[in-house]
Each structure stands twice: as structure tokens, then as C-alpha cells.
Amino acid sequence: MxxxxxxxxxxxxxxxxxxxxxxxxxxxQVSPNFDTAASFWQNDTDxxxxxxxxxxxxxxxxxxxxxxxxLLDLKGDGTRSNSPWSAMANxxxxxxxxxxxxxxxxAFETYYQGIYRANQVLDNxxxxxxxxxxxxxxxxxxxxxxxxLYFFHAxxxxxxxxxxxxxxxxxxxxxxxxxxxxxxxxDLQMAADxxxxxxxxxxxxxxxxxxxxxxxxxxxxxxxxYLFTYDYQNAHDAFQDVIDLGIYSLVSNFRDNFTENxxxxxxxxxxxxxxxxxxxxxxxxxxxxxxxxxxxxxxxxTYGPPTFGFTDVQPTWTLFNEYQDELTIDGEVDPRLDxxxxxxxxxxxMLYGVDFASHYGGNDTYLNEIxxxxxxxxxxxxxxxxxxxxxxxxxxMRYADVLLMYAECLNELGQTAQSYxxxxxxxxRVNLPDLATTKPNMTQQQMRDQIAHERFLEFAxxxxxxxxxxxxxxxxxxxxxDWLKARDSEFNSYVPGRExxxxxxxxxxxxxxxxxxxxxx
Length: 521
Known about the structure:
By secondary structure, the chain is mostly helical. It contains 21 helices and ten strands.
């Protein structure tokens, strides 16, 4: 049985707004069955419960239970969707409907739920008298990190969004994307300054708890935010700080990054903690938490191969073929292919205890197709994913990503020769040839193309590809856009502006300070 050390209990802090006349004040009684904001935040235990609630917003349908991976994956050229659910299928076709907020609207709502909860911590914890000042700093650091992470997603996917920094105001004005990134960077820098390298060396209520945000996680996302805003020097420095911590390394088995085995390993900089053993068995669709909610993911059933899951997401043949462009030192196909997708492999491939060719032999469509393998419970004792309850942690920041982003910064700063060693660290794990020998003395542009190739294969189905495409300016480059269309027909329906999702219409209608919808909608 897998043990999770992070606390999963969600805390609902209720703010009561008294609207009666002064003469009726005596009639406004607080129910003794509920905590108010004034009565809840009293001690270190309350503070820890409060920040645990902020983590809770990572576990529901709008975020990493299902919606956020879909929104990050489906627009890339490594994925496609034939889902019968139009709200899902249309994400990758850039046809998201402003009149149907399914999936993207749930994500938007949950990011702001997480932001609101983080603001409650940041508003109230500083006023709590705590003997353990280090614990207090760690709690505040986690709140800054999580708010920065939720803001990161909101700014990155929805562009010009509100940036609420307190929990006591209802409406917040729309900000520019530049202002959004500034806030993300501020929050992550605050988190990096307050968080420990590890919880193994601290004392207090959170001592030894795995899964909480660390300094390395904050620095890695800080570097990513700088990278996304083309501040390569600051990004370089943040990634260098992560490397210099000396606590991260690539695991030898690439597959260990996507199963329940070896979770929170040496490569994991930050991962969302799911478990089949924690909580109840109900699915956390969103809204106010209830005691029956489990802490499981629906990614596996959503991405799962036919007869084992819904197959709402599939890899592209472009991705399949690119894994075979370069053989390993031993003349084998890149081993990441078999970790990333199921296919009719010569010699056989097992999934959920059966052989691919044997299982799909009676259906030529399935037999000759390719399906997602990452984050599937396919090599254990599970027969399928139809209980909707995967316990696999979502590794949202891996050390491999830090290394390749660091290599990208070096290249953009004119230090192309120095990029090789960090790229090769990732290639060595899968036994690929020495890049410095096979492609020596690359120009800066050649190295950009190489890094794009390396990232495509290393992070397939992990929510990175479309972010890379957009930030590299490929959608504004007619030659690159034509190339993408040739690789993935879903790009044929791309129109400028649709690289972002619309701000949900309900938000536009309900918030008088939201005045501009994103271009293209």
C-alpha cells in the first residue's frame, strides 16, 4: 500500500458578510457549527490546515485530476483527439467554444479557487503568533509557491486575467499578460526565499512530509517563468541555483517517472500527490469539498487505450516516427517510445496483462493504431481504468526539464558549446549517441532546433509541447506553421488568438472589471 505523507484534508474557511441594519446586529448570530475567518486562524495547526487546502485545489477536475493535462497536451503536434465530446476534441483543433466553458472553464475556476485559498493563508497567517517562526515561513512560502503556480497557469493559458492578491475583495480588474508574469515571478521568488530545500531536515508539524513545495520547486518554476518571458539570464541563474542544490538527478529508468513505483524520486522537483488509499471513493469534480472525495486522478481513464479507457487522447504518428529518427548506441529504437505509447510492436508488447496484438487482433482499426502509455496503470495488477481512480502522481516539474531549459538558456545567451553537456545528460539515460560527436559545432539556430527535438521526445504527453511552440514564435512564422500543419492536421484550423483559451463568458458577465475577451473569440 502506498503511503502519502502530505496531509490531504481540505479546509473550508467561511467569510460571513453581515448585511443587516445596525439595529438588527443582535440578530446576526454566527452558527457554532462553522468556523469563521476570524475564529479559524488561531494557531500553527490552523495555518498548516489552511495551506493544505491550497494544495487541495491541485487535485480536482479543473486542475490535475483531468482538465489541466488535457488543456496543456491537446494543442501540441504530438497529440490528437477523436473524443465524442466536442469540448475535448475541439481543444486541439483550436475550436474551443466561448458558449461552452466545459474543461477550460473548470480549469479557470479552479485556478482562482486555489488563488483565493492561498490569499487566505497570506492574509491571515502573518497575524498568528507562532513560536516556530521557521514553520510560519514555510507555510507562507508554500502559499506563495502555490499562488504563483495557479497564476502561472492562468496567465499562460488565458493571457489577460485578474490578479487577486487579497481574499476579502469580490471583483478584481483585468491585468495585462506582462503584469501577470511579473506577479508570477514575484510569488515564486518569495517562495524560493522562504522554502526549505527539503522537509527531512526541519522540525515542526511538517517535518519529513513528502510532496510539499521546496526551494528547488520554486526556483525551477521561477526559471520557467523567466524563460517564458525571454529573460534568459535570470532564467539561467534560477536553473543554475536548482542544479547547485545538488539534490536532484535523473532516475535510471525513464518509466519510473510515470507510474506509482518510485514516486517523489530524485528526478521529481514537484509532483501532484494522488493516492487510491487517501480519502473516500467519490471523484473530486470541483466546488466545495466533501468528506467522501478521494484523492485520485482521472488522467489514466481519459487517455487510456480502447477497452481499458476512453482513448480521448492519442499520440500522433508524427511523434511515433520521430522517436525512430535516431537509434541508440546499440542500434535500438529510442526506449522512450515504448514508455510513451502502446503499439503493435514486432515481438509483442504487453498492456494490462495482455499482448497488444492478441488483444486487438480482431479489430484492424485498433491493431494498427497507437495509444497513450504514460501515466497508465498498465504494468501492475489493474485490469483497466474504468473505476476512474488512478493513484499515479503527476510529475509536473522534472529535473530533466530543468536541464533542457538550462541548455536552452545557455544557447540563447550565446554559449551554444556549453549546451551540449546538459542535453547529453538527458540523452545518456536512453543510450543515445554523444551529440557533440554526431552533431558538433552547431550554430545557435541548429541548437534551437535540436533542443526542440529533444524536448518533443522527452516530454511527450506531459503538457509542455504547445507551450514551447507558442513561446518559440512558431505560430507567427508561416514556414513553421505550415510545417506544423503537415505534422498534425489539427493545426489547419488554427487562427491567430486561438493559442489562448477564452476567458469564460460567465466570468465576463459576472465581473464588471473584466472588459476584454481574448483575440479570436
